[in-house]
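Ops channel
N.P.: pipeline sanity check, posting one input/output pair.
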């Protein structure tokens, strides 16, 4: 146990991770705490991911952030899904949507009913039973108090961090400007203070490392080991660039598989975020730059910027009196928009386990166990996109298709292929619907369905399917276009 109560919390690094932590601690448990954030204007933030997933909204609700105001400030658009293009094979696309597809029962998900219906000659595609997916395809969106769409956001990450900073400083967070030149430790190994270029020192009882890939505190100072996952996720670079919009923003993210990686397109109200994630073993930086610039819509707003990374995680995300969040804790490429989610999960977990009376090993152990589980579930989900493919047109895709995968993922794939069953794990952010959509989208169709479906007569099953389709059609007819809703609800000043 660390000596003494925790009174002084020092967040090192700004960006989305740092200001999320500072704003949350200050607003939700900060009455008897001193919260200081140290950052340097000279150190830029990565800001690759600008897409989110629905749990993002949970923390906002806790912080009482007004949605319309927030969306206007961050040039936000709404997100219902991700469209995956050329992942299964060239010329094929599918959508992984939020929410739930169809109506299942206590023993079997909707995919079992659909499989039986297909066997009987019913021709409706599985995707037609997802309200979010169909709304995304129709470029429609609206909020509803009852039976509403499950949604997230596309945001400007830099503007988002600025918004959180305003909230944090309003709630008493002290910002200190400056580059850190030294990190000092007690004889026990605990961090005691950071020293800035100016000579100023900032002391703390608990330190939160939000220094990005540098991992200045957790990685460099505390020498916390890094578990490398590049043998499963070989992409190690990204090029990011902003372009002007060429049309109305769509309510979904686009992920387009390329020769040695994939390209993202994220629509905001006034611009589009673009990038190419690639493997340097198979593609040079110059070739990647050319590939990205040759597949853009609109004019360049920023110059292309190369980012280098390594997929994996620190074996302890809480070590001694330091907790890492964001890139300082680990990195999983933004294929399923989980980067900000993992920041928020770390923050919420810290708030739930906050060591007011001193840091104890049991807190650290449990925090690390839960974060480790969460990272591994996301890791497996992302690996699946690469591995379950029919592509053989490049060395990169042949490698991904033929590689050994974690046993945990192999079991999930085998179970679904044999039985159509997906069991939900407690800390897996991706629920049954996500796994089913992606596995089927990538080309896995179960060999059998649950026998409970046979309790329903053939005609009854057909009516059951038709009723669900008509319900979605009726909903779609009521929805405004995505752009029309934004114009009414949350237009940004420069839009």
């Amino acid at each position: 146990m660390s000596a003494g109560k925790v009174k002084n919390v020092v967040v090192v690094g700004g960006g989305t991770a740092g200001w999320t932590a500072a704003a949350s601690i200050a607003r939700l448990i900060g009455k008897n705490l001193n919260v200081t954030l140290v950052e340097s204007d000279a150190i830029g933030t990565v800001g690759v991911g600008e897409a989110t997933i629905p749990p993002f909204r949970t923390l906002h609700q806790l912080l009482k952030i007004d949605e319309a105001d927030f969306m206007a400030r961050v040039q936000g658009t709404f997100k219902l899904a991700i469209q995956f293009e050329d992942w299964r094979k060239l010329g094929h696309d599918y959508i992984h949507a939020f929410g739930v597809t169809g109506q299942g029962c206590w023993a079997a998900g909707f995919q079992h009913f659909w499989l039986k219906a297909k066997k009987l000659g019913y021709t409706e595609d599985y995707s037609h039973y997802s309200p979010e997916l169909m709304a995304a395809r129709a470029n429609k969106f609206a909020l509803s108090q009852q039976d509403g769409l499950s949604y997230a956001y596309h945001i400007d990450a830099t503007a988002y961090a600025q918004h959180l900073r305003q909230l944090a400083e309003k709630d008493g967070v002290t910002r200190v400007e400056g580059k850190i030149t030294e990190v000092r430790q007690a004889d026990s190994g605990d961090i005691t203070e950071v020293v800035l270029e100016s000579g100023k020192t900032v002391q703390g009882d608990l330190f939160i490392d939000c220094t990005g890939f540098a991992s200045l505190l957790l990685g460099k100072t505390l020498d916390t080991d890094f578990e490398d996952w590049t043998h499963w996720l070989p992409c190690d670079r990204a090029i990011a660039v902003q372009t002007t919009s060429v049309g109305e923003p769509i309510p979904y993210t686009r992920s387009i598989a390329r020769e040695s990686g994939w390209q993202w397109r994220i629509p905001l109200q006034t611009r589009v975020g673009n990038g190419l994630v690639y493997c340097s073993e198979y593609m040079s930086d110059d070739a990647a730059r050319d590939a990205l610039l040759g597949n853009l819509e609109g004019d360049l707003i920023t110059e292309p910027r190369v980012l280098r990374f390594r997929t994996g995680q620190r074996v302890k995300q809480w070590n001694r009196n330091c907790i890492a969040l964001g890139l300082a804790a680990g990195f999983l490429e933004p294929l399923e928009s989980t980067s900000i989610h993992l920041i928020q999960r770390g923050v919420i977990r810290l708030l739930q386990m906050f060591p007011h009376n001193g840091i104890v090993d049991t807190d650290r152990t449990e925090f690390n166990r839960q974060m480790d589980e969460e990272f591994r579930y996301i890791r497996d989900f992302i690996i699946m996109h690469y591995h379950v493919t029919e592509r053989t047109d490049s060395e990169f895709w042949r490698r991904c298709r033929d590689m050994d995968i974690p046993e945990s993922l192999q079991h999930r794939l085998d179970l679904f292929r044999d039985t159509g069953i997906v069991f939900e794990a407690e800390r897996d952010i991706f629920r049954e619907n996500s796994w089913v959509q992606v596995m089927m989208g990538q080309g896995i169709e179960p060999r059998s369905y649950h026998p409970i479906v046979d309790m329903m007569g053939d005609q009854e099953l057909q009516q059951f399917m038709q009723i669900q389709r008509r319900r979605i059609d009726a909903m779609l007819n009521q929805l405004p276009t995505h752009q029309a809703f934004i114009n009414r609800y949350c237009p940004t000043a420069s839009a």
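N.P.: looks fine end to end. The first helix runs from residue 15 to 29.
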